[in-house]
Amino acid sequence: MTKRALVVVDIQNDYFPAGKWPLVGIEAAADNAAQVLAAARDRGDLVIHVRHESLRENAPFFVPGTTGAAIHPKVLNRPGEPVVVKNFINAFRETGLEAILDDAGVEDVVVVGAMSHMCVDAVTRAAADLGYRVTVIHDACATRDLEFDGVKVPAAQVHAAFMAALAFAYATLRSTAEHLAEA
């Protein structure tokens, strides 16, 4: 049996409706992430929470020391569960995430969180590049509408495009129900 870790990425208050940078579908994604989190805890898997803090002056969200930068209560860390504070999109960059995983002998990484097109994408690709087997729980992730060159892209399409790309070469994609049935 391999050692598995759940990485809960950036499910922070600023991404919720009352926050500074709300995501489409964040409530449902966080509810699903909470189910995955409960199952991981029940199995005794390593649980790692990732929390973003912006280093930019006048940052639009995740300002250090604010309520918005705090982990949302739906997935709040318990004592003993590591919290990796990151300042970049990739949760492995200039953090202790890889050391935590390696020290625990982790081979399989399960990812939930936000935003699908940024930090979830980055941590998934980095984890795969570092040799971990990665599973992304697609309905436990959320994003927002984007715009490029005058084209508005709805969040559902952004999410689908990024999940499709990750499924192509970087990760196994599962729904919450599928993941919980396999556990």
Keywords:
single chain; 183 residues; alpha/beta; Rossmann fold; 5 helices; 33% helix; globular; hydrolase; Isochorismatase-like_hydrls; Isochorismatase; hydrolase activity
Describe what you observe in this structure.
The chain contains 5 helices and 8 strands. A hairpin with a 2-residue loop joins strand 6 (146-148) and strand 7 (151-153). The model has no long low-confidence stretch (mean pLDDT 97). The chain starts with a strand and ends with a helix. It has a 6-stranded parallel β-sheet with strand order 3-2-1-4-5-8. A two-stranded antiparallel ribbon has the order 6-7. It is α/β, with parallel strands linked by helices and 183 residues long. 33% of the residues lie in helices and 25% in strands. The chain has one domain (3-182): Isochorismatase-like (Rossmann fold, 3-Layer(aba) Sandwich), CATH 3.40.50.
